[in-house]
Amino acid sequence: MTARRSLAPHAALTGFVLLLAMVFGAAYAAGSAAGPVAPGMHRTGGGSAPAPGSGSGNGGGGSHDMPGMDH
Asked: Which of 12, 34, 35, 61 is most deeply packed, by most CB within 10 A?
């Protein structure tokens, strides 16, 4: 009886880890199938990230694109 009792936590932990891996795998597959989350997003194929404020996003880096908002 003690051998079976000592295996129960290991089996439960192994089952939980396998279930977690399956859920993450399914989420990754669904995300890959869905594609980018915003229009214009794509992989750049390497290189470094652009400097903050140098892109054309809505990052709040300045108001030069908005008429009447200059200080």
From this structure: 61
